Amino acid sequence: MDQRDVLQLIAQGEGQRLEFKESVAELDRVIQTLSAFANTNPDGGCVIIGIGDKGKVKEVMIGKETIKQIADKISAHTDPILYPKIEVVKESANKGIIIVTLEGSSNRPHLAFGRAYKRVGSTTTQMTRAEYERLLLEKHKDKLQFDSEICEGATLKDIDEEKARWFLRKAKQERNLDIDPELPIKEALEKLKLIQNGKLTNVVILMFGKDPQKFFLQAEVRCARFKGIKAVKPFLDMKVIDGCTSEQIDQAEKFILFNMKKEAWVEPGRIERQEKWEYPPDAIREAITNAVCHRDYFSNGNVQIRIFDDSIEIWNPGTLPEGLTIEDLKGKHESKPRNKLIARLFFLIKYKRRMGNRN
């Protein structure tokens, strides 16, 4: 990088991918910022040492060991270790500007001095614990899936046998599942690969548990009907729905249909009454199913349904899978289920349509 390149960078001013530091004495802050770049920016970022906040060139003293000392300190105080490119643009024999450039990292989150940082505009700030844990979960998502984790303390006594047999009959009918619905429940679950080392996985309790909330308090759907077009108490109607995933979806759908307008009329020359819902029931059910299936069960949040005079909002805890954006969702896109076992079980029973009539 030559002087012209440096001047062009300086002209951009500090931002999401660029930071200025006046001297090497601020190296600790440089390392924190590099960690923030690695954690926040897919393309990394650049720190220029020897520039004031307003872009004024200050220059720094550069000795024979300066660059090595900077590299060593970055290596010693980042985890996983960051390996930025360090360049010097000299103005004289022993003075100049140091450019520390970091490429994007696929190994985030990175710690600096034992803490995780993020970049917000032109500011480096410490991550919250929840933000750090989310990055960790994202990093290990292929190894760590909530629905495939062992449900500690759960036994076959916690399973509603009729729910499990209903599922087996439905899957055989819809997808020709080659598992006898009358098999002993443990054997059927083993064939479905829902038992690991003799222990039940979380998905078994979520799908077939007698009382899933005994193990997962967060596995609820909270529904509210508001008066008007924004969330203002008191509610016109409100319900907290627990139970297994199928019960939650069925009951949430009933709540919405009960609180949704339906137009009815009789056309000239016809006897039967014509009806039309305010929103398509099939779309409503699919949205609820997606919210329950793809929510982040590591989060303490609940699925929420909010009904207003002019809209319906269905929320679930979690973020979009890495690589997907809101715009991507509007067109054809790759399926990236957060909970692969739940998604597979829903697929086996074609769960976009009604599973059964549970009250």
3D structure, described in words:
This protein is of the alpha+beta class and 359 residues long. The chain has 2 domains: 137 residues, 2-Layer Sandwich (Methyltransferase, Cobalt-precorrin-4 Transmethylase, Domain 2), CATH 3.30.950.30; 220 residues, Heat Shock Protein 90. The chain contains 11 helices and 17 strands. A hairpin with a 4-residue loop joins strand 16 and strand 17. The longest helix has 15 residues. The C terminus is likely disordered.
Beta-strand proportion: 15-25%
**The CATH topology of the largest domain:** Heat Shock Protein 90
Number of discrete domains: 2
Q: What is the N-to-C succession of helices and strands?
A: HEHEEHEEEEEEHHHEEHEEHEEHEEHH
Low-confidence stretches: 353-359
Question: What's the architecture of the largest domain, going by CATH?
Answer: 2-Layer Sandwich
The end-to-end distance, rounded to whole angstroms, is 70 Å
How would you state the average pLDDT, rounded?
89
- Helix content range of the residues, please? 25-40%
Q: Please provide the count of β strands.
A: 17
| CATH first level of the largest domain | Alpha Beta
Tell me, what's the shape? elongated
In short:
It contains 11 helices and 17 strands. By secondary structure, the protein is of the alpha+beta class.
Main attributes?
359 residues, alpha+beta, Methyltransferase, Cobalt-precorrin-4 Transmethylase, Domain 2, Heat Shock Protein 90, 5-stranded mixed β-sheet, 4-stranded antiparallel β-sheet, 17 strands, 19% strand, elongated
